[in-house]
Design a protein that fits this description.
- It is globular, with a radius of gyration of 22 Å.
- The longest helix is centred in the N-terminal third of the chain and has 33 residues.
- The two termini are 39 Å apart.
- By secondary structure, it is mainly alpha-helical.
- It has 2 domains: 209 residues, MFS general substrate transporter like domains (Growth Hormone, Chain: A); 191 residues, Up-down Bundle (Growth Hormone, Chain: A).
- It has 19 helices and no strands.
């Protein structure tokens, strides 16, 4: 395969040129080889016998995972900017256009755990590659969409593909890097996610300024193809061949579909929302009862029985709920209370994700050396302090005072997220890395949904001037709880 090998080699050269000194630990360039199992290092942690792809392929493998993650996150954020344009182009109401976002989020939540289980059964690389291919094909369908139903259906397919990437991305990194580099690898992942989240709206606005909304999805195509080519460098580690319980998959899908749609309808149609949320609860109970006796359940009950893992999941949901509520509240606070226009509000808010991006590699370095419990707790405390100060401090119309507070929030979120994720993945045995990734993604999306619902209810029940500050205060409480829950894990040092 001379062409694909040449592309892989070029991708590795680009990766090393971009990363400079970091790349020396990632290895030099050589073509991919066939026998992946022989590529694992013999000098590795005894509890992680599969960790560490040999150096020649490691840069390309890492690039494929991080590029796929960036693609999924960018499409989640840049579509928000395009909703007014899509509504006008397809002649639908703004409320109807929101289904473009809802379909994507619903598919992600519905498919994270099933794709995690499928990855464990068939092999991480195979399912990850199928997810990237599905995401790329669905992007083409989005670009060709002549109507809203077509676009919503294509976005749902995009979400399904994105779920495979999110569920298995860090599980693959765990196989690619050495055990002692896992915290650093999670830091890279957090860096990519933070930069993609920050850049998504700006990239979307830039594309819309020179082209129509279809190009938001056309630009996905070459990146998706490059990721598919680079994914050949990922280790092809075989799965467990466990069959997937389709009835459990259906219960899982029903649970999260009812939850997301019920949450969306809660402010406007509370009776129907209550029915859907009750249905979600009943489906969840039925799913847990069905999966409880299994050795490797779809919902990772085996992992959730471990106190430290369970506390990490709860802390993650609380932290993302607080973070999302705050990120929704901040632009309203900046525009309504502090009199900033949309552009300036966006610029003031950029300090948060950019600080996350700067803090993430540092947090990854620390997470490999100090207690993740205390690191997560410190991050939660920083985040809560920044949000609490933003809610209570008398700014007197000067938004510049918000910048150091949002930077403190970004530092706290970076510390918390990297350390908390590292703890979750190291507690899971290698064969359950997919389940850990699925649970981590589910906790994140559940928290984000909860945060958005909190702000929707606040805007319904309180005035537009009061709701943002109340939302920031609630965000501070939730992130403080996340820090406290992290401390319940104790303070074991990272394994060496």
């Amino acid at each position: 395969m001379p062409l694909t090998q040449a592309i892989e080699r070029r991708l590795a050269q680009i990766f090393i040129a971009f990363n400079g000194p970091w790349s020396r630990s990632l290895g030099s360039i050589s073509p991919a080889r066939d026998d992946d199992r022989k590529k694992m290092r013999s000098t590795r942690h005894p509890d992680d016998a599969m960790s560490g792809l040999d150096e020649p392929r490691r840069p390309v493998a890492i690039t494929s995972v991080l590029a796929a993650m960036a693609l999924v996150v960018l499409d989640a954020s840049n579509a928000n900017v395009a909703l007014p344009t899509i509504a006008r182009s397809l002649h639908v109401t703004p409320a109807m256009s929101v289904w473009v976002i809802t379909a994507y989020q619903t598919a992600l939540l519905m498919a994270l755990l099933p794709f995690a289980a499928l990855g464990e059964s068939l092999g991480y690389r195979r399912v990850f590659t199928v997810g990237v291919a599905l995401f790329t094909g669905a992007s083409l369908l989005c670009a060709l969409a002549p109507s809203l139903p077509w676009l919503v259906a294509a976005r749902f397919l995009q979400g399904l593909g994105g779920a495979a990437v999110m569920a298995l991305g860090i599980a693959l990194l765990r196989v690619v890097v050495l055990h002692q580099q896992l915290g650093t690898a999670i830091g890279w992942n957090a860096l990519v996610v933070a930069l993609s989240s920050a850049a998504g709206p700006a990239i979307g606005a830039a594309i819309l300024s020179v082209a129509n909304w279809h190009w938001l999805f056309i630009v996905d195509l070459p990146v998706g193809v490059m990721v598919l080519l680079a994914s050949r460098a990922l280790p092809d580690v075989g799965g467990t061949a466990r069959p997937l319980d389709l009835f459990s998959v259906a219960l899982n899908a029903g649970t999260f579909a009812s939850l997301v749609i019920g949450a969306e309808l809660l402010p406007t149609r509370p009776a129907l929302a209550a029915v859907l949320l009750a249905a979600a609860a009943l489906e969840l109970v039925a799913l847990v009862r069905r999966e409880l006796p299994k050795e490797a359940p779809l919902i990772p009950l085996d992992l959730l029985r471990v106190d430290s893992f369970r506390f990490s999941v709860i802390a993650s949901a609380c932290c993302f709920a607080g973070q999302t509520a705050s990120m929704v509240a901040l632009p309203f606070y900046l525009q309504h209370e502090l009199g900033q226009n949309t552009l300036m509000a966006g610029l003031y808010m950029t300090a948060w994700p950019l600080t996350v991006a700067m803090a993430a590699p540092f947090a990854g370095h620390l997470a490999d050396r100090v207690s993740t419990a205390w690191l997560s707790a410190s991050g939660g405390l920083c985040l809560a302090t920044g949000l609490g100060a933003a809610a209570l401090w008398p700014l007197k119309g000067d938004p510049l005072l918000l910048v150091p507070l949002t930077m403190l929030c970004g530092l706290g979120f970076g510390l918390f997220n990297v350390a908390n994720n590292r703890n979750m993945f190291l507690l899971a045995p290698h064969e359950r890395s997919g389940a850990a990734g699925g649970m981590q993604g589910t906790a994140r999306l559940f928290g984000q949904t909860a945060g958005a619902v909190i702000m929707t209810l606040l805007f319904t029940l309180a005035s537009a001037d009061a709701a943002p500050q109340i939302g920031l205060g609630i965000g501070a409480v939730l992130t403080f709880v996340a820090g406290l829950v992290s401390m319940l894990r104790g303070s074991p040092m990272p394994r060496r």
